[in-house]
User: Fold Ferredoxin from Frondihabitans cladoniiphilus.
Amino acid sequence: MRPMPSTEVGMKALMSMLEATMMMCRACGDDCMAMGDMNAAAKMCAQVCMNCADSCEAMMTSMKSMMASM
Assistant:
């Protein structure tokens, strides 16, 4: 995979990818949490998905400050 250029266009594309990933992780986490009472693996999946979503959100916050200085 090619590295993304550090241009404004590249940063916006990366932000869009992170936002989509964050939304999918939250949806997966919600679904797994709904089954968490029935299955320990589902509870673990929910936690991992929510951690991923939180990491994406933190990365997006960091990138916003980088984009503001471009």
Remarks:
- The two ends are 24 Å apart (CA to CA).
- The chain has a mean pLDDT of 88.
- The chain has two helices and no strands.
